[in-house]
Amino acid sequence: MEGYTARCCVFCRCFRVDRIYRAVNLYVMFVMGERFVTPPIISFDLIYEQSSPFSPIVFILSPGSDPASDLVKLAENMNFGSNKVKFLSMGQGQDKVRQHVKKICYI
After folding, report:
1. N-terminal to C-terminal alpha carbon distance within the chain
2. Residue by residue, what is the 3-state secondary structure of 61-82?
3. Nearest C-alpha neighbor of 59 from the set 90, 38, 105, 84
4. pLDDT (0 to 100) of residue 60
5. Distance CA 87, CA 98 (A)
6. pLDDT at position 13, please?
7. Annotated domain spans of the chain
8. Which one of 12, 13, 62, 86 counts the least CB within 10 Å of its CB?
9. Mean pLDDT value across residues 9-35
């Protein structure tokens, strides 16, 4: 049965490139189990506890992920206030914005 599923993935790759992600996802669920395709539940409180001024929190985002609302909730729970939380894109053309936010953070 496992070989049949792998051949279905190859067939899908040949004729329906847009469906390969779902096919591989199903294959991994079938062969290895659902825990290998289920994303972990992130605890921002635990992440904060593990951080320090010398090991800051850095988020590397993938398409479709947006932790902004969770970070604002964490700031409110810590009585930090959402007005002190600053978001910064590291994309092209953000130099002046980055320098401004950096100055604000030192105050």
Report:
1. 63
2. CCCCCCCHHHHHHHHHHCCCCH
3. 90
4. 74
5. 10
6. 65
7. 2-36, 44-106
8. 62
9. 77
